[in-house]
Amino acid sequence: MKILIIGAYPNSIIGFRGNLIRHFIAAGHQVTVMSAPASADVIAQLHALGASFRPYRVARNGLNPFIDLQTLLDIKRAYHAIAPDKVLAYTIKPIIWGGIAAHITRFDNFNAMITGLGYAFEKGNWLRNSVSLIVKCLYKFSLLKAQNVIFQNQDNRQCFIDLGLARAEQCYRVFGSGIDTQEFKQQPLPTGEVTFLLIARLLGDKGIREYAQAARIVKQTYPQAKFQLVGPYDSSPDKISAAEVAQWQAGGQLDYLGAVDDVKPYLAACHIYTLPSYHEGLPRTVLEAMSIGRAILTTDTVGCRDTVVAGANGYLVPVRDVDALVQRMLWFIEHPERWPQMANSSRRMAEGQFNVAEVNAQIAKILAL
């Protein structure tokens, strides 16, 4: 079959969808990937997998009607040019405009993968609430005739059903994007001072501000503790500015290590992986840290809670609760004898329910491939 995969951010294609693309191609299917214009390196990696690449115009953030109309038209043209047997779209813009293009072209095998609800589903001021209403209406229309809607956690699935955005019989759940446990091999815990690590796009809803505040408080008792932050800046309305990060660094709260292509050395160099996010689909970086063998400190919220068995491979804290985050960080610092046990538990979970081969097989079965 001819499969069209539509994403938005080109730099995440290989890391997040590379194994799925490889799975489809190994089964004999032809795969074309669409995203915003990609670098020559990303395109070369896709070609090495055996996939084709087609760029299109898409703004990941914002609701500019002129840009979104261009996105819709570009996807519509791709449907005519490629004549795919199946389409799989993921993230908000590809799903909404890919679904609407399917309506227009009467294409009847459109499939969506909801990788998280994101900023638009967060309650806030009148502007955010208005955006949320618009997004929900667009989701509902774009998913009306979707063959399948795949979710990465049960909470998001139930949310869409309860809001009437998708029908229960359309909706399936898989365990995130899965993790390649061969690529992310278990690594021994490092020696040296206790190191906490957070990897994420620099967004407020990733809990980065809470992480920085907690780091400041913890370092008053344990000044030798290290708090590292890795990830790219973002253009979202929820973005964290370079000035804010510089202020944290100047105050000695944390070390910002920038955006990196390979997170494995940073995961291997930490003791406790931390993600105080407000919401997730199922956090990829947590799965990577689990596979490498690290204790997890994250929030008791959608997506994140699916990665932790409390006391076994880590702990959960309430969203936006700096005091609870501080107390659990202090516990980790004061109980290093528990780190190896939690590390091994994380690895076993990664090898079991989060294994990428099993996740990809589930997706292929849902899509009837």
Keywords:
single chain; 369 residues; alpha/beta; Rossmann fold; 2 domains; seven-stranded parallel β-sheet; six-stranded parallel β-sheet; 13 helices; 15% strand; Glyco_trans_4-like_N; Glycosyltransferase involved in cell wall bisynthesis; Glyco_trans_1
List the helices and strands and how they pair.
Layout: E1 2-6, H1 13-26, E2 30-35, H2 40-49, E3 52-55, H3 65-82, E4 86-90, H4 92-105, E5 110-114, H5 126-142, E6 148-151, H6 154-162, E7 171-173, E8 195-199, H7 208-221, E9 226-230, H8 242-250, E10 255-256, H9 264-268, E11 272-275, H10 284-292, E12 295-299, E13 314-317, H11 322-334, H12 339-351, H13 356-366
Parallel strand pairs: 1-2, 1-4, 2-3, 4-5, 5-6, 6-7, 8-9, 8-11, 9-10, 11-12, 12-13
Helix pairs in contact: 1-2, 1-13, 3-4, 4-5, 7-11, 10-12
GO molecular function, one term: glycosyltransferase activity
Pfam families: Glyco_trans_4_2, Glycos_transf_1
Domain Glycosyl transferase family: 182-347
